[in-house]
Every structure is written in C-alpha cells, then in structure tokens.
Amino acid sequence: MDDGITRMLKTRLLSLEQSYEHKIEELSLIKEMGDALKASSISRWDELFYRQLDIIKKHTGIYSVSIMLLDDTTQQLHVVGASSMPGSSGVSPVSLKKGEGVAGKVLETGKTLYLPDVTRDENFKDKGTKQVGSLACVPIISEGSCIGVMNFRDNIPRSFGPNELRFFELISDQISITASLVKTYQELIDLEKKRINLGRYFSRGLAEHLLTDERMTTLGGERRMVTVLFTDIVGFTALVESHSVEDVVAVLNAFFESIVPIIFKHSGMLDKFLGDGVMAIFGIPDACDDDPINAIRCAIDIHNKVDELKEELLLRGLFSIDVNTGISTGVVFAGNIGTEEQMNYTVIGEPVNLAQRLESIASPGEIIISPSTADLVEGLDKTGLQLKEVGPVKVKGISRDLRPMKVLLKG
User: Fold this and answer.
1) Is the dihedral of CA 192, 194, 197, 202 positive or negative?
2) Checking CA distances to 316, which of 1, 34, 174, 274 falls within 20 to 30 Å?
3) What is the CATH number of the domain that holds 128?
4) CA separation for the pair 276, 239 (Å, rounded)
5) CA angle 291-297-299, nearest 5°?
6) Is the C-alpha dihedral spanning 302, 303, 305, 306 positive or negative?
7) 3-state SS class at 304
8) Tell me: the pLDDT tens digits for 216-275?
9) CA–CA separation, 181 vs 258, rounded Å?
10) H/E element, 306
11) What does the radius of gyration of the chain's CA atoms come to, in whole angstroms?
12) DSSP states of 94-137 as a string?
C-alpha cells in the first residue's frame, strides 16, 4: 500500500515538475519576444517579425513557423514572415481569401485548426505540394477580430498535442501585439501621406478636415461645377533674361508666399504652380453658389497684394512685377490622377483651358472673367463688384466668339 502511494506521489510530483518546466519555458519565450519588440524599431517591422519567429522556432524546435496578415485593401491574407526551413527560398507569395485554404478558414472562423497529417487533408493531398507532417493554424486576434493567422508546421505527423496547441495560441496572442502595432504604424504613415498631399492644395485646417474624405484621397474622380483661376506674372521670360537666377528665384518665392494664403483665405484650392503663375480652383471639395464671387475677390486681393509686393521687392534690391488673371466657371472632371503611392488632384475640362486663355489676353493688372462666370455673379450691387464687357474676342482652342468681362479694380 505504501509503495503504491509512493509511486502515485512520485508520478504526481513528476507531472507537476514537467508542468512547472513547461510554464517556465512559456514565460521565457514570451519575455524574449517582448524584449525583441521593445528593442526593435516598428518602422522596420519586417525585421521584427523575423526576429520573433526565430525566437519562437528556437524555443519550440518545430520545423517552421509563418505569419500571415490580412490586407485591409484586398481583404486577403499574405505572408509577412516565415522562419527558415531546409530548402526554402524566402517568403512565399501566397495570398488567400476568407474561407480559402486552411488559413482562410481560420481567418473566417477565428478558431484554431489542427491537421495531424496534412497528406490526408484536401487542401494538400494530390496538389503537388509534397508537404508532409502536422499543421496547426492559429488565429491572430486583435480587439475581437481576426487580423491574421500563424502557421506552425512539423514534418512529422501528429506532432502536436493539447499542450502544444494551447502554447501556440499563447504565442499568437503575443504576435497580435506586434501585428496591431505594425497596423497602427502603417495607418499613421498612410495618414501622414494623405495629410502632406492635401496640405499641398488646401489650408491646414481644411486639409485636416478632408483626411477622411475618400473623394480627395483615392484615385478617380467625378464631374464638378467649379470656378478656375489662373494668375501669371507678366513678361516673365524677359525678366528671366535680364536678371540673375538668384533674383528671379527670390521674386518667385516672394510672389508665391504672398498669394497662396490669399487663395486659402477665399476657400480656394491651390491646384499647382505653373513656373511663374498659379492655378486655383473654387468649388473643391464641395461647390457653393459663392464660388465665382470668391474667385473674383481672391483675384482682386492678389492684385492688391502684388501692388504692395512691388515696393517690398524694390526695397530688397529686386525687380518689381505685374500680374494678369483669367477666371472661368463650368463643369470639369475633378479627381486624383496617378498611382496609389503618388497621386495628384487636379481638374480637366474646357473651363480650365478657357481660364488660361483669358489670362493670356489680359493686360498687366487686369482680371478677365468668362461669360459663364459673369452670369453666375448675381446681385453685383451687393458684392461691390463692377464689370465691363470686353469683346467679342477669339481665344485659342475655342471656335465660338466670346464676350468676357473685365473686373474693374478700385483706385
């Protein structure tokens, strides 16, 4: 009887000792993964994943481990890191949809899937993969959602038991911290790119407001009613030929620094710099009845500012400048053109060409607006604007005669 009790106690103690050693091993792995995360730069997240995978493989001793994360854009799983295997050649380009393959099923259900023998599973047998052994596919859960999976592979069938599967889920929980940080980092990078891009066109406050407006941050566009403004330095080519490059650059910078705030002040969008001029759009992101009036008032303020700038430039020992402006209203195609990584927001259509042509026929200091813009400026006595008909005139690229209007400037 005493021998039986002794044997039972020894067995129990051995089991407790093994359980204790297993817990120590788990804690050691989790601590080492945490230390790797703290010691790494999140900007080099690919290296961080590989470092953590090497730690996992060292502690578990299994054949291979890989991490697949869900791409928010494509809604597909893709491999972001895999531990080295004999005969392997880097990360697999495999992409899986929800429900597709073993990993896709785990992504869909959010539950661990264990294949004791992959050669008996329909996802592997008769597919020419030549894969053998065991596979445990474990979900990576963050904030209640499955954001990826971890694949634990061994080349021996039935390698994993309940303890190993529980251990793999514990490892996956730790990896979810890294994955969440990487996702947040990438979202911040994308947000900063959008902020920089929008900051090229709009005032800082409006740019911040438009960060979540997909119309301004994705490729493609739509037809919009806008008012287009072109302002150009008169006789710039001759000025370049008669002054030093340094002086020309200084004058251009002073000119642009003076007028861009005026465009933003009147709710305009800075479309682009055109060497010695600018193109601005009124009615982006949303059109309003005051867009033509805002464009004209913006042009008036630009001309008044240039009159002040002349004196400042002469005081700095530079040359003075004059500007002319053309404005046109109409329907354009507005949107981002380029690639997902490098896109430019612009507008295309006849009003753009017409505004540029009107600017080219304007005399120094003149603001010429199209008939469509003039027709939309209602209640001129309320706005304080005075217009005078110019024409009829012909402009390049437009067959019909036009009767544009000149904005009369006070003083």
Assistant:
1) negative
2) 274
3) 3.30.450.40
4) 11
5) 105
6) positive
7) helix
8) 556 677 888 999 999 999 988 888 888 898 999 899 989 998 998 999 899 888 888 888
9) 42
10) helix 291-315
11) 34
12) -EEETTSHHHHHHHHH-S-EEES-GGGSTTTTTTT----SEEEE
Structure tokens that stand for 408 in this block: 């009369």
Which among 125, 71, 128, 123 has a CA at the least distance from the CA of 99? 123
* C-alpha to C-alpha distance for 383 and 123, rounded to whole angstroms: 73
Structural domain contains residue 10? no
| The pair of three-digit structure tokens given for residue 287, joined into one six-digit string | 């059109």
From CA 273, how far away is CA 255, in angstroms rounded? 11
What span, in angstroms and rounded, lies between the C-alpha atoms of 169 and 326? Answer: 66
Residues 51-95: pLDDT tens digits?
Answer: 888 878 877 778 888 889 888 888 889 888 888 654 444 555 677
Instruction: Answer for the pair 404, 370: CB distance below 8 angstroms, yes or no.
Output: yes
CA distance 62 to 151: 11
CB atoms within 10 A of CB 316: 12
Residue 388: beta bridge partners?
A: 406
Q: What is the CATH number of the domain that holds 288?
A: 3.30.70.1230
Q: CA-CA distance, 379 to 385, in Å (whole number)?
A: 9
Structural domain ending residue among the three candidates 165, 191, 217: 191
Q: Among 192, 197, 187, 189, which Cα is nearest to 217's?
A: 197
pTM (2 decimals)? 0.60
